Amino acid sequence: MIGGLTYFVDEGWTSFWRGRGASILSLLTIAIAVFVLGLLLIVGGHARRTIDQWSRSAELSVYLADGATPDERSAVERALRAEPAVIGIDVVSKAQALARFRRDFPDLAPATAQAPDNPFPASFEVRLGASSASGAALDRLAARLATMPGVADVRFDRRWLDRLVSLGEFVRWVGFGLTAILVLAAALTVTNVVRLSMHARRDEIEIMTLVGAPMAFIRGPFVCEGMIQGGLGAVLALGALYAGMALAAPHLSAMAAGLFDLGAIRFLSWTAMAGLVAGAMAVGCLGGLVAAWRTARPR
Amino acid sequence: MIGGLTYFVDEGWTSFWRGRGASILSLLTIAIAVFVLGLLLIVGGHARRTIDQWSRSAELSVYLADGATPDERSAVERALRAEPAVIGIDVVSKAQALARFRRDFPDLAPATAQAPDNPFPASFEVRLGASSASGAALDRLAARLATMPGVADVRFDRRWLDRLVSLGEFVRWVGFGLTAILVLAAALTVTNVVRLSMHARRDEIEIMTLVGAPMAFIRGPFVCEGMIQGGLGAVLALGALYAGMALAAPHLSAMAAGLFDLGAIRFLSWTAMAGLVAGAMAVGCLGGLVAAWRTARPR
Amino acid sequence: MIDIDGLSRRYGGAISALDDVTLHVGRGEFVFLTGPSGAGKSTLLRILIGQEVPTSGRVVVDGKDLSALKPADIQRYRRTVGFVFQDFKLVPRKTVFENVMFALRILGVPDVQQRRKTFQVLKWVGLQHRATAYPIELSGGEQQRVAIARALVNEPVLVLADEPTGNLDPDLAIEIMDLFRDMNAGGTTVLVATHDRELIRRVGRRTVALDHGRIARPA
Amino acid sequence: MIDIDGLSRRYGGAISALDDVTLHVGRGEFVFLTGPSGAGKSTLLRILIGQEVPTSGRVVVDGKDLSALKPADIQRYRRTVGFVFQDFKLVPRKTVFENVMFALRILGVPDVQQRRKTFQVLKWVGLQHRATAYPIELSGGEQQRVAIARALVNEPVLVLADEPTGNLDPDLAIEIMDLFRDMNAGGTTVLVATHDRELIRRVGRRTVALDHGRIARPA
Ligand SMILES: Nc1ncnc2c1ncn2[C@@H]1O[C@H](COP(=O)(O)OP(=O)(O)OP(=O)(O)O)[C@@H](O)[C@H]1O
Ligand SMILES: Nc1ncnc2c1ncn2[C@@H]1O[C@H](COP(=O)(O)OP(=O)(O)OP(=O)(O)O)[C@@H](O)[C@H]1O
Ligand SMILES: [Mg+2]
Ligand SMILES: [Mg+2]
Questions:
Q1: Can you tell me the distance from the alpha carbon of C107 to that of C86, in angstroms, rounded to the nearest whole number?
Q2: What is the DSSP letter of D209?
Q3: Chain C nearest C-alpha distance from D11 (Å)
């Protein structure tokens, strides 16, 4: 078995190397698929992170009744902290709210001074992180908060939040769809390329068959060749992607400066890279298998 | 020449048809490239339109001084209408502003009644459409408006607007980049596939060369075959894309319901489709040319 | 060794390459198969290694009914037969040495023996100096000799040769026939299809003539 | 017609397929080229259609110095030569009829004449009934005859045939030689590489023998 494996790898490599010209082409085709896939993963990752960041600035305000007791206040605060979508809470007292109003509407400041009481309620200003469930969950949270003792009113800017959440969802779906299509495309392309290269070598396969070589002897090297092409193609693509990103990064950063707050542009994680290489090899292997099974038959 | 063309098309088609098995594979590869490209175009178009729509709800407010004359008011209005980014203007009188405040802050209503004058300014509320230039242009507009006689204050929500503009820009760039890479990928793939299929038939090419066929006679049919593959592949891809969209549309609409306001999901325009088919044929033709030139040499 | 009974092979409906052929070749025999171009010689040999299936009739080789063999068994059977193809069928991406050695490799012969034996057989056919060449770099006659070397290298129990001297000069043809005779003397059954009357005359063995798919001169 | 002067062809450095060959073939001559396997016959013929270039020496055919021809001129020159390849070189994806007609098509002969002439030549070689078959469906000898038909169909001024009867039975070989002789009688220069001493003896024309790339018996 070990001898057989060595034979397959040996023959696969020799065949790859002797047919360099055509092999490089198949390799390039796989590389392109992996490149596009990798790019998509990177862009998708950044897009999701950006949207998360933006939606983190979405706010929910809980206005407290003037007569709210400290117990009621802390019950509300506890309810807020229990909600996973809540990522930050600012406490605004009645005095702070008044000061803010005076700052925002200086013309009205005299009017508020005349008012018998401070008419502005104290509030919790809550920063929310987006998650796919948060739309409905927040609706529930808001409804629950509104009925809690000591709470005068609950407001939050659903409009932007919903948009961001749905944008995030949309990006995820589109990304998922595109990725699925690309993986399919890559698999089909590799199969096609391997089949074409087997087609180009069907004489060789026919000859080996007629001489009595066991089917595994004929197919094994082709499968190995597919894996070699897939693996090398993926490595090539990742290298090109890395180089391309390194070149494009300053430009992109300048474009996004201040707006996106992406931090450094991140390359694929090691696991993602390993996954892509392994996937490409698997696809190459599959291509080789399919091709070998369809082309190499005893009769 | 006409005879030559007929010969090329005839031979190209015959060769395509006799080699159906392998041809279908190349065709599929091209189809995949066109499919992904078309999908990207559709998604990109919708994304841009959505972002445009969202940013249409961005607002700029111009507060007027209480002593502003009708001439000053209309000067401001003219300045606003001259700005291409402005897509709608609502005029809010002092009385309307007061009524709105009373509605929003019922607790404060008595206080405003006590105030000697209506403290709220009249204003123009301006709806803005996003365009790549609008960020800087709007800054300039705001500055200019602020110095105009009769204007008390200018405010606009730069934060969201900027984000949307830059998001739009980003989507455009990423789309552009992905499209460029995909076109390159498609061209390379087609070239590879055509070269592989020529490689598979290098004997045939060698024989025709040795029998003394003019180079054009040998290369022409391959170029035609490439064009046929490209054209059929593109048509197939568009068909699949259309079918896929028709199937996915209800699902997508449900997902986006109310949020995106996409209207009906739109397929590619006829010009875009024609462009894709023509492009695929051009790529196929190019692939055939490159392949033919590199494989078919007199010696 | 070979029992052919009522064998017919039709292509489409019109073309009848073999028509009710009955032939017996005993173990250790040396038989020439002759006949004009298109008589069905190659078709008969192709059927004998399972490359083609009969339209009707029975073919038993070495006790095995070929039409009853499963794919893996056919491959195993082919490894016991040495076949010289009319169009050589050398693997273009393997060197001369690799082309010949391949026949030993698939038998699982130890590596060192593979090399020794391959080199020896290449010497028999006078091609040891071209071992590292690719088939395309060989003359027609040299390619033919590689094909012969590959057929003989694994010391098969049955050698089937289709026009093995068509590209060889008469002297070389006799030398190659001597090789076949040596193999035959060692117990190998040999069946050679050829046009070369001179060669048949000089080797002087049993001859079976085909014509239009029928046995013309049974022996 | 053919003037070869001091022609050498080396492969790598070690292998010398042709070594200082000087040969003159007059217009309308019929010459046999013979010699053992690997003597350089095919190499010489390949050089004569520009498939290979000499390492040194001069080759002039019909007044044209082959090494001075531009690619398009080589193609034009090849159209005036009929070549029978030792390995046939038929286009596998064209039928027998298309393979032969192709040689007329590239000359720009009107369509009707292409068909008439193709059919006629297929009849000469006895293959009119196989016109719609693909090369793979033919026997070795049939393929060889298609190759011969393609070489003769455009009535070339020069016919070069590399072992054109290696897969034919003696009777058919003589018939094919008669075709070549008829062409020759019409003014075509013919150069045939062959091992078949019997054939040479029966046709009885000038014979040039090569051995190890050198002319062994100049004539
Ligand atoms: N795949 C096929 N399809 C149709 N006809 C075929 C096929 N293979 C062979 N034939 C026909 O069967 C007949 C016998 O062919 P075969 O190759 O056995 O002849 P042969 O005796 O070997 O001739 P040669 O001496 O020319 O090699 C021929 O007429 C040939 O055209
Ligand atoms: N491309 C090549 N590379 C290396 N050596 C070559 C090449 N082509 C031919 N040769 C060698 O040149 C010599 C002459 O070959 P050629 O084909 O001319 O012989 P030939 O006379 O036609 O023989 P045959 O009768 O066997 O066909 C042979 O030894 C061959 O191996
Ligand atoms: Mg035969
Ligand atoms: Mg030769």
A1: 24
A2: E
A3: 9
Length of chain C: 219
| pTM of the model as a whole | 0.75
Of A18, A203, A298, Cβ closest to residue C75: A298
Of B15, B204, B210, the CB nearest to D49: B210
> Are D195 and C139 in contact (CB < 8 Å)?
no
- Token couple for A156: 């939050």
Report the length, in residues, of chain D.
Answer: 219
CA distances from D185 to A42, D28, D145 (A): 77, 8, 20
d(CA C98, CA D62): 43
Longest dimension (CA), chain D: 52
Given a contact cutoff of 8 angstroms between Cβ atoms, the answer to whether B129 and B87 are in contact is yes
Dump strand ranges (E) for B84-228. Answer: 86-92, 123-128, 151-156
Of all protein residues, the one whose alpha carbon is nearest to atom 23 of ligand 1 is C38
CA atoms within 13 A on the CB side of A153: 11
HSE (CB half, 13 Å, CA atoms) of D121?
Answer: 26
Query: For every residue of chain C, which 3-state class applies, written as one string?
Result: CEEEEEEEEEECCCEEEEEEEEEEECCCCEEEEECCCCCCHHHHHHHHCCCCCCCEEEEEECCEEHHHCCHHHHHHHHCCEEEECCCCCCCCCCCHHHHHHHHHHCCCCCHHHHHHHHHHHHHHCCCHHHCCCCHHHCCHHHHHHHHHHHHHHCCCCEEEEECCCCCCCHHHHHHHHHHHHHHHHCCCEEEEECCCHHHHHHHCCEEEEEECCEEEECC
Residue D73 exposed, middle or buried by CB count within 10 Å (0-12, 13-18, 19+): middle
User: How buried is A40 (Cβ within 10 angstroms: 0-12 exposed, 13-18 middle, 19+ buried)?
Assistant: middle
Hey, which residues 92-151 in chain C have their CB within 8 Å of chain D? 137, 139-142, 144-145
Instruction: Tell me the two tokens of residue B22.
Output: 């392998």
Total residues belonging to chain B? 299
pLDDT in tens, A10-66: 777 877 777 676 677 677 777 877 887 787 777 777 777 766 666 655 567 788 888
Nearest CB to B200; choose among A35, A115, A199: A199
CATH 3.10.450.50 is the classification of domain A57-157: no
ipTM: 0.77
**Position of tokens 């198969």?**
C33
CA distance A212 to chain C (A): 4
CA atoms within 13 A on the CB side of A194: 34
CA D20/CA D4 separation, integer angstroms: 10
- Contacts (Cβ under 8 Å, ≥6 apart) of B72: B64, B148, B149, B150, B151
What is the domain partition of chain B in residue ranges? 2-54+162-295, 57-157
- Whether D118 contacts D104, CB under 8 Å: yes
Backbone phi, then psi, for C86, in 5-degree steps? -60, -35
Residue among A238, A291, A248, A257 at smallest CA distance from A36: A238
The Cα C59–Cα C6 span in angstroms is 9
Residue C128's contacts (CB-CB under 8 Å, 6 or more residues apart) are C119, C122
CA atoms within 13 A on the CB side of B216: 10
pLDDT one-digit tens code per residue, A192-236: 666 666 666 777 888 888 999 888 888 888 788 888 888 998 999
Residue-level length of chain A: 299
Ligand 2 closest atom vs CA D15: 5
C-alpha C194/C-alpha C211 separation (Å) is 13
Q: Rounded distance, CA A235 to CA C81, Å?
A: 45
Q: Is there contact between D and A if contact means ≥3 C-beta pairs under 8 Å?
A: no
D163 inside 8 A of chain C by CB: yes
- Please report residues of D whose CB lies closer than 8 A to that of C162: 140
In chain A the first and final C-alpha atoms are separated, in Å, by: 26
Contact D89 B297 (CB under 8 A): no
Q: Out of A153-167, B145-159, D136-150, give the one with best mean pLDDT.
A: D136-150
Helix, coil or strand: residue D138: coil
